Amino acid sequence: MKVIVTGADGQLGRELARLAEGSECEFVFATHAELDVNSPRSVASFLDAHPADVIINCAAYTAVDRAESDATAALKVNVEGVANLAREAAERDITLVHISTDYVFDGSARVPYTEADATSPQSVYGETKRQGEREMQSAGCRGIIIRTSWLYSAEGHNFVRSIAAKAQTESELRVVADQWGTPTWAADLAVAILHILPQLRGRDLRGEVFHYADEGETSWWEFADTIVGMMRSECMVLPITTAERPTAARRPEYSVLDKTKIKAWFGVDVPDWEVSLERCLRQMNVYKD
Ligand SMILES: NC(=O)c1ccc[n+]([C@@H]2O[C@H](COP(=O)([O-])OP(=O)(O)OC[C@H]3O[C@@H](n4cnc5c(N)ncnc54)[C@H](OP(=O)(O)O)[C@@H]3O)[C@@H](O)[C@H]2O)c1
After folding, report:
1. Does residue 162 sit within a domain?
2. Does ligand 1 have an atom closer than 6 angstroms to the CB of 37?
3. Of ligand 1's atoms, which has the minimum distance to the CA of residue 37?
4. Is 7 part of a structural domain of the chain?
5. CATH number at residue 134
6. pTM attached to this predicted model
7. Is the CB of 77 under 6 A from ligand 1?
8. Is residue 221 domain-resident?
9. Residue with the nearest Cα to atom 18 of ligand 1?
């Protein structure tokens, strides 16, 4: 099976590259410079040069706050980019695995969101990701959409790296305690995707949505406190409210994803978020026994 990964320099793309070494599939990793999903010509010529069975779309505009004042740029990647990939995938009978987000939900629930729950994004980023899902579904190509949440890894811009860096230089951090969700190690999502890939062959799925996040739920404050605790840092993590730390984009208060469907359909194993956090911090060489 030949697999193209777009946005290969991002968190998820890099984790897929790490795991691909032991895989039976033949991978082509395309960075933004090599394959610009915004450009129909770039997509078509890349696919001409690299005929593939599957595209894993890790390309995205992920700057949630910046998107509020830069909606055109977010729209180009998260909506038009997905449409470009989905159209080519439909024409060439390529299976598209597209990644979406918990931010398509408004956060008013208090039990984990299932794939059947209504979406109602509260931010430009969330809205563009929802529209991207719809572009893929209306193109009618083979493939699935996997929504995930609070993604982090040992590389790139993410909450874990930012808290770990501050824990080494600051004595006190203030982190919002009234937004609930589940941190997801990008390596776990990559494992899940590679586990699912061979199973897509025999099924005619077209834009079916699945949820994948690590197991459990927490707040950003508890997440930060756990990072600092695992590092044995003296830094204090103080809980604050969202109102005390206004951001350009509104985030869901609660965005825990229900993983029942992905486990039942594909037999995906889901590690506990704290177990995976420890593994990531060890990879970063900041975990202290
Ligand atoms: N990060 C999270 O907390 C989170 C949470 C839920 C869902 N997700 C979703 O999970 C997926 C993977 O996220 P991630 O954290 O791995 O993202 P990321 O680290 O921000 O990586 C995104 C990659 O996409 C590339 N890209 C941007 N515009 C592109 C274009 N026009 N053509 C091709 N590549 C382009 C970026 O390259 P440049 O940097 O060079 O532009 C970057 O390498 C995304 O769909 C995201 O929406 C993320």
Report:
1. no
2. yes
3. 32
4. yes
5. 3.40.50.720
6. 0.98
7. yes
8. no
9. 10
Beta strand 218-219 with 180-181 is: antiparallel
Active site residues: 125
Range of the domain at 146: 2-157+184-216+257-271
Extract the tokens encoding 111: 């039990």
Phi, psi of 258, rounded to the nearest 5 degrees: -85, 125
DSSP count for the chain of H helices, then E strands: 10, 12
Q: Is residue 36 part of a domain?
A: yes
Name residue, tokens 């909606």: 71
For the CA atoms of 78, 80, 82, 84, what is the dihedral angle to 10 degrees? -160
Ligand 1: does its nearest atom lie under 6 Å from the Cβ of 132? Answer: no
Domain tally, the chain: 1
d(CA 210, CA 8): 22
pLDDT tens per residue across all 289 residues of the chain = 999 999 999 999 999 999 998 888 999 999 999 999 999 999 999 999 999 999 999 999 999 999 999 999 999 999 999 999 999 999 999 999 999 999 999 999 999 999 999 999 999 999 999 999 999 999 999 999 999 999 999 998 999 999 999 999 999 999 999 999 999 999 999 999 999 999 998 799 999 999 999 999 999 999 999 999 999 999 999 999 999 999 999 999 999 999 999 999 999 999 999 999 999 999 999 999 9
